[in-house]
Every structure is written in structure tokens, then in C-alpha cells.
Design brief:
By secondary structure, the protein is of the alpha/beta class. It has one domain. It contains ten helices and four strands. β3 and β4 form a beta hairpin. It is globular. The protein starts with a helix and ends in an 11-residue tail after the last helix.
Length: 270
């Protein structure tokens, strides 16, 4: 009996030794999905039927931002299929489309957020500027979703948070500081209106607006204390600011690694 137990013990040690000496599984690597050299991002401005959205349509179209952004992205990335960005009437939402080949930025959605900011009650120039800023954030957020889907990127955690991070990084790269501040202000104002617990939607795929304010500010704003002053949010502690710097670097490193297989040969990082 004792010998049988000893044999089992020895056999167990041998099994452990075999397991320990077995080759480790190969590390996870990103495998590039097929891309099309002729595929590109195209911007379409569709005139609204309602006169209500004519001002925001003209503000977006005349800003001169969009063709330059599309050209820059086309020079950097190879896409599996052509992606068309539509500015149009399509309801109080924004979507990257189930077909993965379009992004819809709705005039109703943009106007709603201009109203939340209160810019519509100010000068026409303020309203136009707010519309462009909101459109910039929304475009890059939806583009983050599209890249995740078209390239089948291995996102862990919330895809909405990943898309927010992508938008923040892109705005930072483009030096669109005003769009960043407008985005933070939007989440701050909207978050204050949802302060009551019963108003919070815990099942919403997006994070709470107050949290999105903090996350975007954390990633890209160099003076978080100054940004928090005058807002509905507490200024971050020194430890939190240091964590923010690490979070920014982590998001940058992760997105650069995931998109690296799809960068054109002549494209640099950023």
C-alpha cells in the first residue's frame, strides 16, 4: 500500500516536471486583416431638409476641417473597404453603421449637444464653433468603433471606453485643444443634469458623463486642476494626476500596437 502511494507520488513529480519543461504557448500576436490599397475615407455633406438644421450644416461644411482630416487618415492607414462619413439628418444619435463601411453624424445629434452646451443661445460664431468641436469628438469616437470592427482589433473591457480613448488621442495628435475642452464641458454639463442616482442608466454601454469627462481629461489635459476649477468635478489629487500620465502612455502604446499592421509604409506614428 505504502509502495503504491510512493509510486503515485513519484509519478506526480514526473508529471509536474514534464509540465514545467513543456514549451510555453506562443505569445499572442496581431495578425493583419486583408486591406484594400484603393480603400479610403470619404466625407459627404448631405443638405438637411429641415431649415432648423441649415445653420449647423453650413457650419460643419464651411469649417474646412473634414477633407484635411480624411486625407491625413488616408495617408496613414490602409482600410479593408472604403468608409464614407455622412453628415446628414438621421435622428438624435451617431452611428458607425452595422455594415462597417459608413459613419453617420446626424445634424439632430450635433444640434442637441450644442443646445446642452448653451452655445445656441450665444453668438452664431460660438454655436458654429461648438458644432465643429462636437462633430470632431463624435467622428473620432465612431472611427474608433469602425477600426475595432474592420480590423477586428482585440479590445478588452468596454469598447465605448476604447473608442473614447481613441478619440482623445486623435484630438491630441491634431492639436485640437478647443475640441477637447468643449468635449469635457459637454460631459460635465450633461453629467450635472444626471446627478440624481435615479437618473443614471447603469445598463448604458457608455460610461456616465461625469466619468467620461474625467477619463478624457485624464488622458490628454496637462493642467487637470485648472480644467476642474469652474466645472462640477473635483480636482484630481497628485496621485491621480500621475496615474493619468501612465494611463495616457498605456492607451497610446496599446493603440499604436493594434494599428501598426494597418499603417501605410510612408506613415509615421501618431
Amino acid at each position: 500500500m505504502r509502495n503504491q502511494q510512493l509510486l503515485k507520488y513519484i509519478a506526480g513529480l514526473a508529471l509536474i516536471g514534464v509540465t514545467a519543461c513543456s514549451p510555453s504557448p506562443p505569445p499572442f500576436t496581431l495578425e493583419a486583416k486583408p486591406v484594400g490599397d484603393e480603400s479610403k475615407i470619404v466625407i459627404e455633406h448631405v443638405p438637411p431638409q429641415s431649415q432648423v438644421y441649415q445653420p449647423i450644416h453650413h457650419a460643419i461644411q464651411q469649417s474646412g476641417e473634414w477633407d484635411a482630416i480624411a486625407s491625413d487618415l488616408n495617408n496613414k492607414f490602409s482600410l479593408p473597404q472604403t468608409l464614407t462619413v455622412y453628415f446628414q439628418e438621421c435622428g438624435e444619435n451617431a452611428s458607425n453603421g452595422s455594415a462597417q463601411n459608413k459613419i453617420e453624424l446626424c445634424y439632430e445629434f450635433l444640434q442637441q449637444h450644442v443646445n446642452i452646451l448653451g452655445a445656441d443661445a450665444q453668438t452664431a460664431a460660438a454655436a458654429n464653433s461648438a458644432a465643429v468641436d462636437v462633430a470632431l469628438l463624435t467622428l473620432f469616437h465612431e472611427l474608433g468603433h469602425t477600426f475595432i470592427q474592420q480590423y477586428q482589433l482585440p479590445i478588452t473591457g468596454s469598447e465605448e471606453n476604447a473608442a473614447d480613448a481613441f478619440a482623445a488621442l486623435m484630438l491630441s495628435d491634431l492639436k485640437e485643444e478647443e475640441a477637447v475642452l468643449t468635449s469635457m464641458e459637454l460631459f460635465d454639463v450633461d453629467g450635472a443634469e444626471q446627478a440624481a442616482l435615479e437618473q443614471l442608466s447603469f445598463w448604458n454601454a457608455h460610461g456616465f458623463n461625469a466619468q467620461r469627462y474625467a477619463n478624457i481629461g485624464c488622458m490628454i489635459d496637462s493642467n487637470l486642476e485648472e480644467s476642474a476649477s469652474g466645472s462640477n468635478q473635483q480636482a484630481p489629487s497628485l496621485d491621480q494626476q500621475q496615474r493619468c500620465q501612465k494611463d495616457f502612455q498605456d492607451h497610446r502604446k496599446n493603440w499604436d500596437a493594434m494599428l501598426s499592421p494597418y499603417r501605410r509604409q510612408t506613415s509615421g506614428q501618431g
